[in-house]
Amino acid sequence: MSDIIHLLPDSVANQIAAGEVIQRPASVIKELVENAIDAEAQEIHVLVTDAGKTCIQVIDDGKGMSETDARLAFERHATSKIRQAADLFALRTMGFRGEALASVAAVAEVELKTRMANEELGTRIVIAGSKVESQEAVSCPKGSNFSIKNLFFNIPARRKFLKANSTELSNILTEFERIALVHPEVAFYLYSNDTELFNLPAMPLRQRILAVFGKKLNQHLLSVDVDTTMVKVSGFVAKPETARKKGAHQYFFVNGRYMRHPYFHKAVMDAYEQLIPAGEQISYFIYFDVDPANIDVNIHPTKTEIKFENEQAIWQIVSAAVKESLGKFNAVPSIDFDTEGMPDIPAFDQTRPIEPPKVHYNSDFNPFKTSSASSYSGGGSYSRPKVDWEGLYDGLEKASKMNTPMEEEPFVDETDWTSAPASVDMSEERTPYVQETETVSSPSASLYTNEPAVEKGAQHFQFKGRFILTSVKSGLMLIDQHRAHIRVLFERYMNQIRQKQGVSQGVLFPEIVQLPASEAAVLESIMEDFSAVGFELTPLGGGSYAINGIPSGIEGLNPVELVRNMVHTAMEKGNDVKEEVQTMLALTLAKAAAIVYGQVLSNEEMANLVDNLFACPTPNYTPDGRTVLSTIKEEDIEKLFAR
């Protein structure tokens, strides 16, 4: 029987190994920039073309490499960081696996020019698919110049699954921001298709954070600084009033390395307990300095997950440090005692006799008498005024029911709107979707066959400001007014996007929305859909946009938060299919503009909403699958009165 197990060729083994390290263009930039930092570079330039799919170039002024080192650097498990296994537990550098350059060379065409400071000539090496094509001496500046072209050219399946340029560029910017935040002493420059996106000279940490995320963040940052024998924690946390549901900037760094750590994230959020609304997030930039022997950075291929030896103790330190920062800078609400006009408390004198306080009162005063002989300083008799106490309680019972928290508040909590529309006008002028369905006098089975039609001339009743009750042929139908309006508005906005006929309402005073580079790249990719739905955005440069117009019908909402949340949703979904992006935008806008729970509707408004709901293709559910209506059958109602 012949043997069936054999060793893989180096080229195939390198491609398999590259799958763990190199996932997308952002992975290449991460590895090359980290190597440049390890080479003690003070200035790093990153240039990408077509979001890195065509070309990635990383230029640094570091130590450079000799001719032998330049060739050896592309071999697997070749590294200058470790000599023996024990060195893994004393690492303070970035790259140490010895697989980065080998993995890049296995899936791309690589050109390297490098020279050491004490050498007159440098070395140029060209490698494609792990095969060295040429090596020669050249004249070049000190440092290293990597040019990565045609990523995944020899693995078409991998290249096919790369996302759209906007998505890949957003990932590149995210990786770039992480590295720039942890090395403020290094100057970073990033160019995309010859357009400068980042120009970050060496600067203090706080200024580096502001340079990346905007100067408006300056007034909201509180410094954190605590030093223990176990760990040193420093950095910044944001004030509680800056909490938001989406888009918070949350970063952990350990010994100069970015990491994700859900356990420590809970420690930070624990310090904000009862200071921010449930479900909202806060921004933070926290840096750990810990003995490398007490952590393991070798548990994940991308080295973004780190294991700590004393996680529980560090959890307590982090939580206490953040709480101390919030208290020190008066970010925690406190009672302000007004001491002005209060008498001074005399010092205790042992020789002075203690006199009990004396109580002065009028023994003739009786509050139950309508008149009294008691007189006041102003003279005259005292007469107790008659007060209609019962009148003070009128309407309180109804108001308390209207404001009782619902067991389930879908949609409202999923988006971060600073204000809601005060009222919703169901007339034709305010709600264009009425015009689309005005020929439908009542729902019919042809429009929706799974539900009985609303009876002609049926009256609608509102229950607890949340449900609309109406009579149907099979019984009693309950409709969730908020979800029903979402369904109707979603169809309206989707129709506007498809036909590019969104009605825009100009604003008297344009507002400015400032976005980080990674979010601005996403906004640019969906700008056409924003315009189709009714937004008028004008780029001002530097990630700033002027909001000159908003979709008609969402007056009262905060347009800045609305734009920011729609961009964050697009980033979270990661959709590249245009239809999916349009669906997401329409749904987000519908959730924002829909009538809220507790809003009182007239019978005409309820009738319009019900009619337009049944004109939708699928009135039973919201676009994201929530139940809109439910029917109680007539026979079930009769059973309740059987006895």
Automatic annotation (TrEMBL):
Example of a GO MF term: ATP binding
Residue ranges of the region described as Disordered: 424-446
Recorded superkingdom: Bacteria
Polar residues composition-biased segments: 434-446
Gene Ontology cellular-component annotations: mismatch repair complex
Function summary: This protein is involved in the repair of mismatches in DNA. It is required for dam-dependent methyl-directed DNA mismatch repair. May act as a 'molecular matchmaker', a protein that promotes the formation of a stable complex between two or more DNA-binding proteins in an ATP-dependent manner without itself being part of a final effector complex.
Protein name per its UniProtKB record: DNA mismatch repair protein MutL
Species annotation: Bacteroides cellulosilyticus
Chain's gene name: mutL
